[in-house]
Amino acid sequence: MEKENIFKFKQGVGSVVSVLTILGILIVLNFLVYQIFVRIDLSRGKVYSLSKATKKMVSNLDDPVIIKAFFSRNLPPPYNSNRQYIKDLLSEYKTYSKGKIKIQFIDPSEDEKIRVEAQMTGIAPVRITQVESDKYEMKEAYMGLVFLYEDKKEIIPFINQTGTLEYDITSRIKKITQSSMKSLGFLAGNSETDIFKELPQIGQFLSEQYTLKNISFKEDKKNPPIDALVVLLPKEKLSDWEKYKIDQLLMQGKPVAFLLGRTEVDLQTFQAKAIDDGLDDLLKHFGVEIRKGLVLDPQCQMVTLQTRRGLFTVNNMVKYIFFPLVTSFKKDNLIVKGLERVTFPFINPIRVKDFSSEKGKDTEKKDLEIEILAQSSEKSWYKENPGDLNPLRQYVPSPDDEIGPFDLAVIIKGSFESFYAGKEIPSAPWENVADKKEELIKQSLSTRLLIVGNARFVNMGDQAGVNFFLNIVDWLAQDEALISIRSKEIVYRPLKEISKGWRRVVKYIDIFFVPLMLVVFGLGWWRIRRFRRVNLTLENLG
Is the distance from CB of 141 to CB of 125 less than 8 angstroms? Predict the structure, then answer.
């Protein structure tokens, strides 16, 4: 019995020493790794490390960029983890910039002069709630970044989430280090969506990277020069003069995006109204037809409907078949590469001409390159006149309906022939005859054209739709680096549709399988340990 007790004592001491040794090694390794910049990112799309575009940009900086991080210490959750994350991220920027980016981490709460400096640069304290001594208390905290380059300055006044932080940092570094900003025009004068009034957050966001201008060919004899044009949801018919000016912009090699909507629906009454924007002939010349009917897709977005039940209002979530939830994208195109789903409400499908089959005088159009960006699902169908759009109605395709998938967003790239080649130049609104000072450009430089059947995804309040729109704008401006950074943050993982029987099987597996496996593992481990203990005891006694 004495030998057995001595053996158990030695075994216990050995176990304690082993545990302490392992803990000591882990503590030392953790300290060393904390002091050295090392990051291994195993996530899909490398969302927790800098993108190639950012690395390339910061590695080519000509002059130093100073980043001052005004960040308070000892922040309460969930802000306490942000400080270390930002410190690690900025260290990665500094590493890849080859020393051109200088980082300063400052806690303004420690010095009145630093607090004044922070507020002078645009970083004001924010009031956050923390729990201390079992009660809620308000605390002032600083969580902002200042970017300094030569005589330029940009700020991120408050960092409350880190999901888009790489984009926010890189875009500001890019803005202060580039010599000039590209100019983007938004067509005005035909009841288009005003990005400044109707989408102020998007307008403010884009104005940080581009010079935005409303372009009205109806009123202005001479518009400011632009690098690309966006035609966003016009509700009135464009004149021949306006179409001529758009045509000539394209002929100058300026990219144009037609983000249209041929069907307007009142979401209170679900009454539809057709819109004639007058662009059919121009688009058909460039090889695109936007069809009049709508796409119905069982793979669709949920909408909230309010119904009255006596004195109460009840909110019901229903799938709305006229809001196709698109998951089929051309993954190798940067505009949609990181997108996993976008809702296209009341979408009109697109037909694209097959230029490769044309002969004779149009053989030069064979050089045009067509890319289908987005398609509806294979279960979708097309209705020329869908009639009632009530979400509570049950919709099924009839035998005569055309079945999908349907093209919803397309790109055409190459050299285009002017729609007005061989035609009389339209007259300007302020003249009785055509403006003879302008000479028609009959063939374009290599350029790009983008068409979406309905652009109401922009103001749906869905971040995926907003990102799609921002990617389109960056693509027009040929700013593909920003697209690749923004797209890293878009994550959508829908479950595959399975039968009710399989759903029941999966449900019970989730409920019982994992606990059962833990019990089996525990019993097995207990039996193994017991067997080893008995064998060791017998060996020492023998």
Answer: yes
